[in-house]
Write a structure and sequence with these properties.
mainly alpha; 57% helix
Length: 200
């Protein structure tokens, strides 16, 4: 014989189920947020990335997206974001390529400027990453379909993704309108204005 439940019991069970899911999601969110350093604070390990690895990623991202009239990548916490994305979302082979890339960045910095990336001058860092950007472009243009991606392509993509999806990237580097809002079919264009955030 089938046991039926009334509407009150069904609502209670769904509430317990959704409440439990919300608690799990909240705890995971807090764990991710705790990996981000405060201003001037120490870096935390993320997965297999050591605190010094995360600091290096932050400085690479800052060189790609430096502070100008708007805050840069470090202010947006892009380094920890990059480490978390690689740890949680990349396949093992891509993780290995990415992590080897960190060593290659440091090795290339020592070869070009005589100092590790973190100890190099801002101009030396920029020159190094510009060279790596040309290298990855040539590699990606010529590589067979099945070949792995270049590590610097991954770093650059993650730096851009982390920055432009952060609060700082959305609200300070781009124009942002909280949605839902009314539909505007025609917005006046002002030359030189910042781009709209994708969901703005």
């Amino acid at each position: 014989m089938t046991d039926f439940i009334d509407r009150r019991e069904a609502i209670r069970r769904v509430s317990v189920l959704l409440g439990g899911t919300a608690l799990v999601a909240e705890s995971a969110l807090w764990a991710a947020c705790e990996r981000r350093p405060g201003p001037g604070g120490p870096y935390a390990a993320v997965g297999a990335f050591t605190p010094s690895d995360v600091e290096l990623l932050d400085e690479i991202a800052e060189t790609i997206l430096p502070e100008t009239t708007t805050p840069g990548a470090k202010a947006a916490g892009v380094g920890p974001f990059m480490a978390l994305m690689v740890t949680d979302c990349y396949e093992a082979d891509d993780q290995a390529i990415f992590r080897r890339g960190l060593t290659e960045v440091d090795d290339a910095s020592r070869a070009e400027s005589g100092a590790a990336f973190l100890a190099a001058t801002p101009s030396a860092r920029l020159a190094l990453l510009q060279g790596l950007d040309w290298e990855q472009k040539r590699y990606m243009d010529a590589k067979p379909t099945a070949a792995p991606r270049h590590y610097f392509r991954m770093m650059k993509e993650l730096a851009l993704l982390g920055y432009f999806t952060s609060e700082i990237g959305c609200t300070r580097a781009q124009r942002y309108v909280e949605t839902p809002a009314r539909y505007e079919p025609c917005v006046p264009y002002v030359a030189g204005g910042p781009a709209w955030a994708p969901h703005g």
